[in-house]
Amino acid sequence: MKARAKRRGFEFFLGAVLAAALSAAVAQASVAALPSFTGVAKSVSPAVVNISITAAAAPASLSQGGPPAGRQHDPFFDRFFGGQPAPRTARSLGSGFVLTADGYIATNAHVVANASRVTVRLADKKEYTAKIVGVDEKTDVALIKIEPAAPLQPVELGDSGNLEVGEWVMAIGSPFGLEQTVTVGVVSAKARVLGAGPYDDFIQTDAAINPGNSGGPLVDGEGRVVGINTAISSRSGGNEGVGFAIPVGLAKNVLDQLRANGHVERGWLGVGIQEVTPELASSFDLTDASGALVASIAPGGPAERAGLERGDVIVEFDGRPIADSHQLPALVAETQVGSQARLTVLRAGGRETLEVTIANLPDEPERRLSARDGDATEAATRWGLAVTDITPQLARGNRLARDHGVIVTGVEPSGPAAEAGIQAGDIVREVNRAAVESSTEFRDAVRSSKRESLLLLVQRGEVTSFQLLKQS
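Now predict its structure.
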């Protein structure tokens, strides 16, 4: 009995030893499988710089930590200005990275916005005053230049198009003014559209990004820059695991143009587009909710000259499929001005190909329509809105052209129009694809509609879009 017990005890001890050894081997193998970023950090960090500015007056967007003037403000979209700057001076506002040995540096447009003086601090602590070469607010990219005493170590640009969700990436910058800080995470998602501008195509990452990281590089496992860190989604103002970077594929073309010309020239099609939702796809008798729905056409623009029509759905641009509407602006913008492009569109159940000559994107200020009460004499219909004719007085007060359409004078808070986002002051141009010239025509068109939904073409300011009203 004693011998048997000893043998059992030895077997138990041997089993425990083997289990411990196996566990240690698994742990060691797991650690070995994790990537090491020590070499990447050593190779890239010398090219990462700290940027501070002196402003003629501290802008409200700086002190509030919000976006630059003219950009959409969203408290859930932190623009990394960081801290409360002293009057007339803001320090440690962001980061940047060296592009060339002779001193060209990339950063964000909002980092150098309103700057009267830009100071660059290199990894070796040397400081230089930088010149702003060019700024592109549409993509939030800026190029600055210093005159270094010795050649600088530039970064290597990678290919953001080849990034995969789940791939390891590293962010380097100056969060909260703490220079040369390295954080590591993965690519959480690609092609994120945040509503920050017309060319949204952000890389999302869980690598810790905080105020001050803005303008710094996001690099892959080989030490190549794949993005420019630019924004976080945060309720607290600090990192919550959701950060965004501008893809280097988008930024590179912008930086090249800024260096060559000091500004960016973009292709222009001359259309206003919107997403094809499942509801709109059904209204337009489409087989699926893909492509870019043409909601407006600029008079005399390339699209009008090419024969494009409102209500067309663009499904291909120069042979490249358009799955989502946000893809089209970037493709058009990257097309050389004056070149020919082929548009494949769906129209009235058919498929057509049009040739268009891409023009230069005009830089015109956006006009806003004041939502003023008109003569709300029209009774609200079952769709929850009231309209009236565009009188000369209304046209002058709201800066409207006196062409076809009616102006919305009232919206029921809980009605179908309110649910669709219709507002007082909007201009209704069409009802169920038929133009309306007056409130009488609008009322007749609505009354004659036998559908459980109502498709309106609505103009607000310079933006025209299709809106589908549905009975609940």
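Residues 204 and 244 are 5 Å apart (CA to CA).
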